[in-house]
Structures are given as structure tokens and as C-alpha cells.
Amino acid sequence: MSQRETNVIASGWGWRAKDGLHRRLKSQCTLFLCILLLQNISAHGQLYTYPDRVNSQLEAALLREVSGQPADEKKLQDLIRLASIYYYKPLHRVSALQKSLIYARQAKALATQLNNRDDFEKAVLLVADALIQSGEIPEAELELPALSGKTRIELLLTLSFQLLLANEGSAAVNIETSGRYLSEADSLSKAYGDCTSKAQIGTIRGVWLSSQSQYRPAEQILLSTLHTVDSSHCLEPQYLDLELGQFYTNSGDYEKSLKYCLKGLKEAEARSDSLSLGDLNDLIAIVFRNTGKLPAARDHFTMAMQYYLRWPGTRSNLELEIKYIGQVFIGEKEYQKALAFFLQAYSQYPPETYRAKKIAAGTIGDCYLKLKQFDKAEHYFQYEFRLAESAEAINEETYHRLAFFYVESGSFRKALPYLRQALMRISQANLQTKRHLYYMFYLTYYALGDYKSAVYYLKENNKCDDTLFEHSKYQALLDLQAKYEDDKKTGKINLLTKTSQLDQANLRHAEFLRNISICGSIAFAILGAVFYKQYRRKKEMSAQLEVLLQDKEWLLREVHHRVKNNLHTVICLLQIQAEFLKDDALRAIESSQHRIYAMSLIHQKLYLTDETETINLQMYLEELISYLKESFTNDQRISYDVEVKPLKVDIAIAIPIGLIVNEAITNSIKHAFVGRRQNNMIRISLDEVGKGVSLTIADNGIGINLNDDPLKWGSLGLKMIRGLSQDLEASLDISNVNGTRITIQFTTDLNANHNKHNRENQDTDRRRSIYRGV
User: Fold this and answer.
1) Averaging pLDDT over each range in 79-88, 608-617, 704-713, which range is the top one?
2) Contact 774, 690 (CB under 8 A)
3) Contact 130/104 with Cβ under 8 angstroms?
4) Which positions ≥6 away from 281 have C-beta within 8 Å?
5) Which residues fall within 8 angstroms of residue 322, CB to CB, at 6 or more apart?
């Protein structure tokens, strides 16, 4: 391990990244920071009150004046201004916060001497704020007895909210203390508080309930408070939008989270509020990261980082943004880039506090873990754990992190004690954390041969998965039920109206017939009654059939959803098995993963659309080809020319087509461009030809050996293409025209294949021989 790597946590060093990534990031950051410098910063009505901001250009003049001033009111004001200037220094460095604390305490003492109550309370709040930002929350709590009235409410709310965000100490104790401070602030607000205080209390109470997994009441109080804020304008709405976004992120509803984050971003930009813009961009980036949109996540993490370089955030900070940006590189499997980014960032912004050092150790450890350098990774993971021990900040995350390393490195027996310690502290964790911990338990017990325990924790993991998946569908189900009830009420009204009209017609008809003949009127009345009953019965049966049809479509979509989930579980299991395989066995597993994905994508498309029996080949093939491009990490620089018409076909046709395209493209990527790094092209086209469809997959590679019959070539992929073409009753042509060209022509007329099922029993042996190697 180099000297630079061993010293990265404790101090900085001179080093410059020379790759294009650093140059691009530096230029973007410079431009973005220039924009920030031109913005007016205003952030009134946050979740808790910040100190008043003072122009930092006054620092030198205030220092000169304070040094020679007598102990009077002017010196008191200058001390408060200096404390505020150092509080708002970029990055919240320890040295700046210490200076803020010194001047705030001097102001507190001078205000006591001058008997100035208002400035005394300002100074006390500055002392508490500086202590909180330094991580000294217990010290800040000691300032509470000196305050009363509205200033006491402000500090109570600040402490309550910061305790909910604190990672140090016992989560249960922090939540209990936070709740006690919140209740006291609520009681005081009835005598001293105003609309702003009530809105702040309602928001923090929603966050507090969410921290205890009381999601439904938390959501209700947050939405109710937002309604009050929108109508009374007593609190800037972007802060409440931020907390709603955080709530929905924690509960796994990313669509609603993004909705409120974007709403808050619009509000904050309209008010030039940089204090919330950092947190909002950070949360948007987290949503994009968790939903797999990594480039968009990196952009928003970078924007958040630029805000945190100038102003502190409420929920995040510079250290976390560095961690998140590096994690995006890791998610893109750019492990060396991630490590280079971390080393460059920590040289430019050396970690000072316990929390910053802990984050730095964990991020570098993650990089070495991904690079399979387990000795170096263990050094940093152990150092991260020791930092938490020395700060008496052991919690679920601390044990979870070290257990994660041992599971990933294959040291399952070492991982088990840390997993158990994490499980003892999991009550306050969110669904994603619980899901990941249960999955690590499953891997550990499976590797140790305790299959009963492994199955138990796999079921617990699946329960978390189901909760996350079903949450996104819950609102859709409620909307569907509401629509169904409205339609049912409308149908009843229409039916009653038609019934009334029919009764009136029958009455007039009966009166008319009665004038002609009593017997005739009786006969027609009976006929009308029979007709009316038949009409009513027909309407009822029609309504029942419509409901049954809707239920059938809903169940069919659910079946496709479950099939897709099960296929993805198989892909995950194959990926786990691939960690222990190499060479031919690994390639076989990876090929199977691509084939299973091609089939699972069909079911995903079916349950995400209103059509449950047909597939749009254009959307399906474009997404499949995109997946294949991302799955092969090589330097061949292959271009793809995709021309697929939006043709809808039955699932029985879509699955063989997807498998054929998968096999053909995979074969071209692996074998067509050996030794070539440029001018490589794969072309996929699908178009209607007469009453049929023509599918062509061609490359400009080295071609195949045409001396042998290509349909009898020993490749498993071509055997599959031949067998799948026969299933489609399609014509297959493989030629060597400037590379390899595979052309398949088939018909989408299912009636033309009506005798297909009659031949299934005869073709069973042939299909088994074709797919035996899959």
C-alpha cells in the first residue's frame, strides 16, 4: 500500500488527477460556482432558524475593530457578526466553527455584562448552532436552560431535527430525546409560537413518525402541513417538499419522491435559495441512483456538491456528495475511476471530523473491495469500524458495513457475528437496509451449509421486495377502485333513468290498449313485463361480465409481473453462482442470463402496459439490444444500426424472436470482430414484407466458415436459432456477405399456424435436443 493511500484519511497531499474526467469535472464546477456567486441567497422559514448571515467581506474590518474596542454595544454587535461569518464559512471546517464558537461565547458573556437580553439569546443560539455543526449535540443541549420563549422553541426544534439525522449514539435514545424536545416546543408554541413555528413542528413531527416506521400517520401529517403552508405561506414550501421527497424515498415510492423534489427545486430556484437547492439536488440524485439512472444521478450529485462548497446543507454535506459521486462510478463498474476520484477529492478537501474520516475510509474500502484487493479493503473497513468505536457511535450501519465486506470477500464465518449485531439494531432501519441485511444472511447461511436458515432469510428478503414493489402499485389500485365505484354509481343512475322511461312508455301503451280492449291490454302488459325482466337480466349479466373481464386482465398482468420477478431471481442466482466460476462455465452462465433476460423482458412489458397478450417488437428489441450493449464490456467500439418497425405480435412469436436476436448479437460481439477496434457495425432490421415479416441481423465482421452447412454447424447458438425458426415455421438463411448475415422470414398470422399444437407431442424430442445445452 502506498504512502499516499495510507495517509488519505488523516491528512491531505499534493496530487492531481490527469485524466479527462477530472478536467471535465473541474471546468463544470468552476462554471457552476461562478453562477452561485451571482445568486442572492435567501432562506427564510426553514425547518428551524439559521443564524443571520453577514457579508463575509467585512471579516477583516470587524477583526480590526474588535481588537481595540471597549466593551460596549458596538463590540457586542461586531462579535455576533464575526460568529456568523465563521459559522457560514464554506465546508464547515473545524477551525472556522471553533472561531465561530469563540466569538459567540465572547458575545454571550458581553451581553450578560451589558444586560442585553435580545443579543444574549442571539449569542446563545450561535453557540448552540456551532456546537451542533461540530457534532457536539450534548454540549449544545446544555445551552437550553439559558433560553425562553420563541428562542427556546427555535433551539428545541433545531435539536429535535438534528437528533433525527444523527448517526452517532443510540438511534432509540436519539429518537426519544428528539420526541421530548418536539413535545416541549409544541407546548411552548401555544403561548409564544406563530404560524411558522406550527408548520415547522408539524413537519418535524412527520419526520419523527417516519423514523419510527409509522408511515401512514407520517404521510398524513406531512401532506396536511404542506396544505397549510400552501394556503398560509408561513413556511417556504421547498423545505416541506424536501421532507416529503425524503419520506417517499425511504418508503420506496420513487415516483412520488421525484414529484415533490422537482416541485421543491422549482420553488427554491424561484427564491434563489441555495440552502435547500443542495439538499434537493442530492435527493433527486439518490432517486435516480436507486432507479438505475446513474448518469443523471452523477449530474445531480455534482450540482449538490457545488452548492455544499459554498453553503451547508440540512440533510447532506460535501463529504457525502464525494461519497455518492464515487459510488456512481462504482455502480458503472468504473472502479479505478472511482478510486482516482476519491483520492483526488480527499487531497483537495481533507477530512477533519470523525464522520468525514469514517466516510472517507468506507469509500476507499469499497473501491478496493470491487477491485478484489481484499487486504487493502479490509484495512479501510476495519479502520472505519474502529473510528465508530472510538467515537462511541456504534450502530446498525457500523456492523452492517463490516459484515458486508466479509460476505463480499467470501469470509462468511467472520461475517456472521457482525450480521447478528446488525440484526439486533435493525428496528429503526428502512426497508432497503433490512432487505440488504436479510440477503447477506441468506448468502452467509447458504455458504455455511445452514440451508434452513438461508431459506428463512431469503423469504424475509422477498417480503421486503414485495413491499417495495407493491407500494408503487398501491395508489394505482386505489385509483382503479375509485374509478370502478364511480362507474358503478353512474351505471346505476343510467339504469334507473332508463327503467323510469320504460315504465312511463309501458304505462302509456297500456292506457292506449285499454281503450281498445281490456283483454288486449292484459296481454300486452304481460308481454311488456316479460320483456322488461329479460332486459334487466341482460343488463345485469353484461355488467357482471365486464367486471369479470377487468378482474381477468388484472390477474393476467399480475401473473406476468410474478413471472418477471421469478426470472429476475433466477438471473440474480446465476450472477451469484458466476462469482465462483470462470472460463467456459462462467460464459455458459452469462449466456443463460442473457437468454433469461430476453424472456423476462417480455413479461415486464406485458404487465407494464394495458395490452396483456401482444408485444410491440420495436420497443422490446430496442431495450433488449440496449441491455446486450451494456452487458459486454470490451474495447471493440461496436456501432449498432437498429431499424425496427413498430409491429405488434403475440407473445408466442415475441419470445422466439427475442431469443434469436440475443443469440445472433451475442455471437457477433464475441466472434465477429476479433482483433478489430474500429469500423465495427451490427445492423438489426425488422420490416413487413408482403403478408409476412423479415428479420435481419448482420455484421461486417470476419464472417463464418461457409464450407460447412451453417445450419449444421456445432454452435449451440445456431442450433437454437434453427430450432426457434422451425417453431415459428420461418425460413432461415445464413450468408457471408461482407460479414455474417442471418435472415428470417415468418408470418404473424396465428390462424396460419392453427395446426401447430397438433404437432407439439411429435416435436418434443427434437426440442429437447436443441435446448439441452441452455
Assistant:
1) 79-88
2) no
3) yes
4) 265, 300, 301, 303, 304, 307
5) 305, 341, 342, 345, 346, 349, 359, 363
Task: Output phi, psi for 742, to 5 deg.
Answer: -115, 120
Q: Is the pTM of this model over 0.70?
A: no
Of 233, 227, 314, the residue nearest 277 (C-alpha): 314
Rounded Cα–Cα distance for residues 146 and 299 (Å): 45
Task: Enter the C-alpha cell of residue 15.
Answer: 496530487
Q: By C-alpha distance, which of 495, 523, 498 is closest to 509?
A: 523
Long-range Cβ pairs for the range 413-420 (8 Å, 24+): 413/448, 415/440, 415/444, 416/444, 416/448, 419/444
Closest CA relative to residue 441, chosen from 461, 464, 465, 427: 461
In this structure, what C-alpha cell is assigned to residue 59? 471579516
Distance CA 17, CA 253 (A): 38
**Top-confidence residue, 561 or 570:** 570
* Mean pLDDT in residue range 171-192: 85
Contact 194, 153 (CB under 8 A): no
Q: 745 - beta bridge partners?
A: 694, 731
Residue 581 CB contacts under 8 Å (≥ 6 apart), including other chains: 589
Amino acid at the residue 284: I
Q: How far apart are CA 407 and CA 421, in angstroms?
A: 15
User: The C-alpha cell of 609 is what?
Assistant: 402496459
Q: 615: helix, coil or strand?
A: strand
Q: What is the DSSP letter of 736?
A: -
Handedness of CA 359, 364, 365, 367 (dihedral sign): positive
Q: What residues contact 157, with CB distance under 8 A and at least 6 apart? A: 47, 48, 49, 181, 182, 185, 197, 200, 201, 204
- Cα(713)–Cα(312) distance, integer angstroms: 65
Instruction: Return d(Cα 723, Cα 329) in angstroms, integer.
Output: 41
By C-alpha distance, which of 323, 287, 280 is closest to 304? 280
